[in-house]
Amino acid sequence: MRWYAHASLAVLAACVGRLPHPRYARQPTSALEAVGYPPPPARIEFVPPPPAKGAVWIDGEWVWQGRRWAWRIGRWVQPPPGARYSPWTVVRGDDGTTFYAAGTWRDDRGAELAEPPALVAARANLSDVVDPEGELETTGRSIRPAQTASAADAGAGAPAEGIPDAGAMVDSGRRFDDAP
After folding, report:
1. E strands, 83-150, in order
2. DSSP character for 12?
3. I want to staple 93 with a disulfide (CB 3.0 to 4.6 A). Which of 17, 97, 120, 177 is the partner?
4. What's the whole-number average pLDDT of the chain?
5. Torsion sign, CA atoms 108, 111, 116, 120
6. What is the pLDDT of residues 68-92, one digit of tens each?
7. Which of the pair, 82 or 133, is modelled with greater confidence?
8. 179 Cβ partners below 8 Å, 6+ apart?
9. Hey, how many other C-beta atoms are within 10 angstroms of the C-beta on 52?
10. In DSSP terms, which residues pair with 142 in a beta bridge?
11. Residues 21-33: b if buried by 16+ CB within 10 A, e if exposed
C-alpha cells in the first residue's frame, strides 16, 4: 500500500508542473472597455508539449465580440524580442459595470504589438457552456489561432478529428433547441 501512495504522489507532482510563460505586463486602464456581462467559466484545454526551445504558453481566453463571448484557444508562441504579455482581464467598476481588456503583447513603452503566430494550438473542449444555474450560455464561435507556415506544413499541432484547421472557427454557441 505504501508504494501506491508514493507512486500516486510522483504522478501528481509530474502533472502539476509549470508551463513556460512569457514575461508579463499589467493592462493599462486605457485598455479596458465596458462589456454587457462577465465571461462564462473557462474551457478545458489539452496542452500539447512545447514545440520549440524558447516557446511560451499563452492560455486560452474569452474574447468579447460586441454581444457575446468567444473562446480563443490557447497556444504555444515564440515571444517577440523584448516584449511582455498583458493577459486578458475582467474587472468590475464601483458602479457594478463589467470591464474587459483582451490579452495582448506590449513593447517596453506599453504599446500594443502584433500577435506572434501560433506554433501549436491547444485542443479545447468545445462543448456547450453551462452557467452556475445550469442554463446554457450562448457563446460565440471559438477562435483557433493562425499557425506559422512551418508548423502547418509539418503537421505540428494538427487538429484532432472534428476540430477545424488553423484559422477556422468552431460554432460553440449552439442552443439545445437548434437542429444539429
Report:
1. 84-86, 89-92, 98-101, 104-106, 112-113, 120-121, 123-124, 129-130, 136-137, 142-143
2. H
3. 97
4. 76
5. positive
6. 899 999 999 999 999 999 999 999 9
7. 82
8. none
9. 14
10. 170
11. ebeebebeeebbe
Instruction: Give the type of residue at 119.
Output: L
**Confidence check: pLDDT of 27 > 90:** yes
What distance in Å separates the CA atoms of residue 103 and residue 58, rounded to the nearest whole number?
9
Q: What are the boundaries of each domain within the chain?
A: 20-170
What residues does 143 pair with on adjacent strands? Answer: 72, 169
Grid coordinates of 8: 500516486
Q: Is the pTM of this model over 0.70?
A: no
pLDDT value of position 81: 95
Residue with cell 520549440: 52
Answer yes or no: are the C-beta atoms of 157 and 51 closer than 8 Å.
yes
- Judging by beta carbons within 10 Å of its beta carbon (0-12, 13-18, 19+), is residue 87 exposed, middle or buried? middle
Output 144 or 67, whichever has higher pLDDT. Answer: 67
| Position with higher pLDDT, 3 vs 65 | 65
Residues in contact with 48: Cβ distance below 8 Å, sequence separation at least 6, in sequence order: 76, 120, 121, 122, 123, 157
Q: How far apart are the C-alpha atoms of 27 and 19, rounded to whole Å?
A: 22
Smallest Cα–Cα separation from 121: which of 46, 172, 64?
46
